[in-house]
Amino acid sequence: MVYLLIACTSLAFACRKKSDPPPVPYVSFKVNGIQKTYYNYSKFCKDFCASSTFCGTFDLNDNIVPAELLKVGLPGDPYAGQVFKSGDYRFVFTWVDPSSKWYYVTGGSLKLTMNKWEGQGGWGCANFSGWLKASDADSVYISDGYFQNWIWTYTTKK
Q1: Is the overall model pTM greater than 0.85, yes or no?
Q2: CA 97 remoteness from chain centre
Q3: What does the alpha-carbon distance between residue 135 and residue 69 come to, in Å, rounded to a whole number?
């Protein structure tokens, strides 16, 4: 009887569903149709990244050299469902291409929609797409964009 009890208990633990792995911060998007995915990141934190309230970056190689880098600055206290677009006060969205050419939301037509904003220790997730412009008037089209990242500093809205 004891052996049967031990066998059943072992079987119950062996058949228990494993929980899903924790999410990983990353950004994924296409630039003029070419897929980009960056797993190196800085957590969203209250910062003065070009006067935005929350700032976070993602990059390809975790380098000091700013190439293959995406920077997002969100003004105020973001919340799920909020939409940021080109021209919004203190909204920053910058992509640096492999040759270190910088493209900005200023002059472009990018739109970012917050899917989740959980506050301190939680997650911020968003979708984005649209045009970015370089200082020489060159432009790139960003499509199918998505990021998920940790939030380091407390906010008042969820």
Answers
A1: no
A2: 17
A3: 17
